[in-house]
Amino acid sequence: MTDRVAEEVGRQYDRLTEDLAVFMGDDLQQGYSAHLGYWDTPESRATFQEAMDRLTDLMTERLRIGPGSRLLDVGCGAGAPAARIALRTGAEVTGVSVSQEQIALADALARTLSLTDRLSFSRADAMRLPYPDASFDAVLALESMQHMPDRAQVLREMRRVVRPGGRIVLTDFYDRLPPVPVAPESMHATTLSPDDYPPLLRSLDLRLVELLDITAETVPRSLACLAEVAQGLDLDLDAAAGLGYYIVVATAHRSPADGPGARGAA
Ligand code: SAH
């Protein structure tokens, strides 16, 4: 892995994992999710952990996978979402992250759960995925797109490794207010307007299935929880209140090589 941005982001997540180890102690061995929570209603009493799992489950429903399916989790963090998906769907899940510390934790989690036969992790850059064409039934990117310096390149790689008709399910951030830096520069976090996704996907021969704004269900309450639990996080939570958050579901078209009429049949 040689890309400078990927290296730097990986180092930031290594550092964050070390900080969390101090904060969480032995609990860290259970893995952790590093994404926003989803609360169905303002009255919902779900904890942050439950709300994070709820978002993982909303993504899982959209992947359309089951026993025997192969899923790639791009930007897998410490592996908790991948483990949950493997347990709930029966699918074989491969996760990639640029942080070696996270991969070590994720591997340990797979061993603890006795899931190493169908839950595995590798340090790899999403911009250059080390997998053959059409080797997965679906691809997930749960809160990792914001770190990718070139979203088009990542989507191209996702399209290459997913089978024709397979789903790509991701979340991404946009600015609801004039942008203010939220994360340190070394996190290389950027936003993209949801309006930019349809043309971006079209240009890559991907078909948009769903674009869903989930800002109200995620951002305000997640930030309130983060303010309580993680003073050490190097995030500007006031600036983050101006962020919007959304889910994108796309399918890979069949390639023209699949024969006449195959295009768009997904
Ligand atoms: N999906 C996980 C982690 C989200 S945090 C969860 O929900 O818990 C963002 C993740 O993206 C981190 O694991 C980080 O290492 C990963 N990431 C950032 N840039 C990446 C890149 N270029 N290639 C692969 N993973 C990347």
Polypeptide structure, described:
Helix 2 (48-63) packs across helix 3. The protein has 8 helices and 7 strands; from the N terminus they run H-H-E-H-E-H-E-E-H-E-H-E-H-H-E. 42% of the residues are buried. The chain has 266 residues and is α/β, with parallel strands linked by helices. The protein is 36% helix and 20% strand. It has one domain: Rossmann fold (3-Layer(aba) Sandwich). Residues 6, 9-10, 13, 33-35, 74-77, 80-81, 96-99, 102, 125-127, 142-144, 147-148 line the site of S-adenosyl-L-homocysteine.
Q: What do we call the CATH topology?
A: Rossmann fold
User: What is bound: which ligands?
Assistant: S-adenosyl-L-homocysteine
User: Would you list the SSEs in sequence order as H and E?
Assistant: HHEHEHEEHEHEHHE
What top-tier CATH class fits best?
Answer: Alpha Beta
**Number of helices, counting only DSSP H or I runs of 4 residues or more:** 8
Structural domain count: 1
